[in-house]
Amino acid sequence: MKNKRFGAVITGLLVAAAILGVSVAFIANASPYVTVSEARKSGATNVHLKGILEKDSIKNDFKSKSMSFKIKDANGDEMTIVYTGPPPQDITQATDIVAIGTVKGEEFHSDKLLIKCPSKYEGTKKAQS
Q1: Would you call 123 helix, strand, or coil by DSSP?
Q2: Which residue has the higher pLDDT, 25 or 58?
Q3: What share of the chain is helix, strand, coil (3-state, %, to 5)?
Q4: Would the pTM of this model clear 0.90, i.e. be above it?
Q5: What is the pLDDT of residues 41-90, one digit of tens each?
Q6: d(CA 91, CA 125)
Q7: Which helix (H) or strand (E) holds 7?
Q8: CA distance 35 to 93
Q9: How far apart (Å, rounded) are the C-alpha atoms in residues 39 and 52?
Q10: Backbone angles phi, psi at 80, to 5 degrees
Q11: Cα(34)–Cα(74) distance, integer angstroms
Q12: What's the alpha-carbon Rg for the chain, to the nearest Å?
């Protein structure tokens, strides 16, 4: 009888520890979406900054394996993104970009990008006569 109770207690503790571990990991990796002005004001870390890519602002630095570009958010505010990591494919085709990272001064430093490109399944617009 004691062995069954002991086993049940151990199982309960393991389940509680697993739930706690998953909860802590989720909270540590959760980050809010912010606007450019919110990011500048807060100087927040680990946030999602979404905007439209200004394609003529893309600059690659192959020595440091980084690139920089500007995005404009829905309010019209701009911010320079400094991205370090493997160069994203077809970034010039992007309609929206979400950079995940930290504000440092007037720049947003990111090591992860989420790129939204036009869907190949969307119909093309035909010229109307």
Answers
A1: coil
A2: 58
A3: 30, 40, 30
A4: no
A5: 877 678 899 999 998 999 988 888 899 999 999 899 999 999 998 888 88
A6: 22
A7: helix 2-29
A8: 22
A9: 16
A10: -85, 130
A11: 11
A12: 22
